[in-house]
User: Fold these one by one.
Assistant:
Number 1:
Amino acid sequence: MKVTKREIIFSVAIVAVMLIFGIVLSDKINDSLMNSYQEYNTALQINDDPELFRYGMRTNVGNAFVHGNLAAVGSVSYPEVEGQYATMTKVTERYTMHTRTVTRTRTVNGKTQTYTTTENYWTWDSIDRDYLHVDNISFLGVEFPYGTIDYFPEHIITTIYQTSHLRDVYYGSDLEYEGTIYTVLSDNTISNTTFYCNSSIEETIDSLEIKWQLIVFWIVWVLLIGGLVYGFYYIDNRWLEG
């Protein structure tokens, strides 16, 4: 691929224009982030104080960071599984044979040949799923319906085989977590809530104020500029010599 002087000059112009657009877009992203940071910095902070938490909900204080314990009220379990959990999922799986076509190469008399063959493989495939969860949860001692805070991550508990080709896999979530929520306190409840597990209020704010969006934007934008310049060099640009 031969690159001419005119192509180089034109590609510099492409880069300059794209950088200008990139700066404009990044400024808009930065302005949006600054608005969010202003919202975070003016939000009420409640650190393990149940009374202030209840007061904030009663008086509609709005945005707040609240640190405390998230816990299930009660527990659930399947009879065949030991332990109690906030949520449980039972996945029934069948060991199933599948067929696929595979392309291979071989050398015959010094020549490489491509051929296809059929092979069998086995996987555990889900055929049924059942889910249990508690009716209520509590945060900082205040009860809410399950789902108000969407954070009960499940991990595998055990696997029970019915036969060699049929099994039940059980997943469950812990009964209690410690962390910080960012939420809206109003109408004696919380809404638009995100839970940050094992994080203090200060750690949560610090993590939210990292400008990763700008970093990702510029990585993608630089790759786009590189792709445009390469594509420009790759195509026929005789019109520039015209």
Note: Residues 5-42 form the longest helix (38 residues).
Number 2:
Amino acid sequence: MALRILAVLLLLLSACGPSPEQFNGRMEIGDTAPVVFSGRQPKRFPIRGMDAARFQTSVDWERAKAVGIEFAFLKATEGGDLKDIKFDDHWRGAGRAGIVRGAYHFYYFCTTPEVQAKFFIDTVPRTRGTLPPVLDMEWNPFSPTCQRRPDGATVRNEMQRWIDIVSAHFGQKPIIYTTPRFYQENGLSAFKGVEFWLRTTAKSPAEAYPGQSWRFWQYTATGTLPNTPGLVDINVFNGSAESWQSWLEQRTIR
């Protein structure tokens, strides 16, 4: 009798088709709203990664690694006193999965760069083999506490002060993350000898940031990963698999 009941249950399950986890958890990096860019498409870059913050409440880091996520930028801090509530979990999870990880700081225009740099340094472990720090520079029109928008010269001065302090502590110059609007309005092309991580989800980097070299490209905010709920930002590294390894040798924390 037990065998007959088991057989009936198996038949019913097979008739229902694949479970949501099986269907949505296909072993691939997906995109719910893919864009065809001019020039080289993101899938043509061999090294892809992701970024994560509190909005990614649960990430299956092992499966992310299995489908080709090689690196992860994780939000650590914002301003001078706000630590991302998922930073510690993401930091440990990515590390255990063997994904090269790094931390980023979301800049707040109503706190001095010195205070923000110290808070970032106090929050992020100085761990050998991790990615350089990232300074996330973009306007935040939704901030309930800070509506300050300084001119470009002031923005660049504050950025440089943060970069100098954080560089001295981690032994690596931070990467600058930015958006097309912020980049243009604040003249970030003036920064030389700094690597950029560029957000552009509708145009290629060459179209959105004419003449600007870049190391990382955040090409979608609508990515999906197996067994990870919700949407994920997906990024690519600008180079071959060989140049990725060479870059890691030069730019990871010692």
Note: The chain has nine helices and ten strands.
Number 3:
Amino acid sequence: MKIKLEKRAKVAFTEMFTKAVIMARKTKDAAILNNVYLMAASQKEQIHIISSTRDEYLHQCLDLNRFNDEFTIEEDGSCVMPVEFDILAKKFGGKSIKIEASEDTKVKISSGSSKIDLICMKAADYPLRKLSQPDLRVKIDTEVFKNMINRAAFSASDNDTRPVLKGVQFAAINNELSVIGTDSYRVSMITCEFDTKQIDKDLNIVLPAALIREACKKYLNSDQIELQISSNDNKVTIFTGNTVYQVTLLVDNFPEVKKLVPNEFNQIFRIGRDDLINAIELLNPLINEASNYSKGTIKIVFKKSSTLISTPSTELGSGSIKLESSVVEGVLEEDIEVWLSAKYLLDILKLGLHSRHATIKFIDSLKPVVLDEEPYNQSKFIVLPVRKR
């Protein structure tokens, strides 16, 4: 394999290689997967950059047609490139960079007067994947997908006790698209209208939350993506621009969270989202100094025209902040007091809710608290109160 990259092609190649390195550095499954696979194909005028782990697969394609004469394939072939090349490529000062895999385990890199020889693993030993025939194809706007994933995935569990809760449910049923994350103590449920006529059957899969959240940030960069789901190997493959990203699905049954959402409430309050965030962050040093079961919790008392945020008593002291609020629905005959996890509430306010005001719905102080935003029904966030002893 012999390739030469100049100017914009060099920049594009190194950017793709950096993304591949991020994935390659994560794997602990096999030594060869700590490298990046490169393949040059002059007939298609493309170079392929591949990396993978046990659960993920990333295939990027650099097309020569985009760069005129800035990218040349002098000889077809493949090699397994060490991740250290990422640093070398950025340090080379020349205007161009040339990569030559003249022998099976040696790669020569040159730029200007600089030359480096690398010892590599055999390209034939790299475990390339063959994509399975999909059972279902779904096209969706990339920003819609990323927005829904990011607003739900933070509620997923990071505990191995129930592996399925480390994922988010992604479903398209009855002209509605929904993404749900939960760790049993809180729930994020994001929905939007979706024309399910474009797919042959209902879609209901569980994506690994941490991996798909990272993929949204690093790999999905086109206006529209296509998801291809294969039941044969329990994988979803996402096609986005010049990139193919594949991840293994979680196969356990996701809890039927929608049935847990109350439909009727005794009181509904509206409070400024930023005001509530600022109050909790101001009290956080005291909140985190509390001992035993009170650590990390805040007390919220809802009144007719105000809300009082306060902390447990700690060695540092205690604090309270009064905020303006209003009763949207229900007759408030007496104050409502509820204890909540400050972290969970902050996550919802900062990562989930996007509106200026937060709407907080109660049945009573011991039942799940529901937060949503205007317009209603596009998102719901549920958090369980902390029972005080």
Note: The chain has three domains: 2-125, 136-258, 261-383.
Number 4:
Amino acid sequence: IDADEDTFWATVEAHELTGPITAELTTVDTPTVIDGRRTTTDTITITRDGVELDAIDVESSEDEAPYDLAVRSIIGDQPFTWIR
């Protein structure tokens, strides 16, 4: 990029993703083996402003807590909304 440092960072700031963060289950019950046992995983896709930030696999569960913890492991304490 042919720009001085101030121009470069001003451009980065202007294009920073600032919209709400969302999390969505994008695949469910994918067969896998964890620690030698057969189980299934679900994939959570995390997005902001329509841009995928990350995708993370979580062992399938009826409990919501592991899913929330997985999202928090990526985004920290930032607020987010589940897309159902």
Note: The chain has one domain: 19-83.
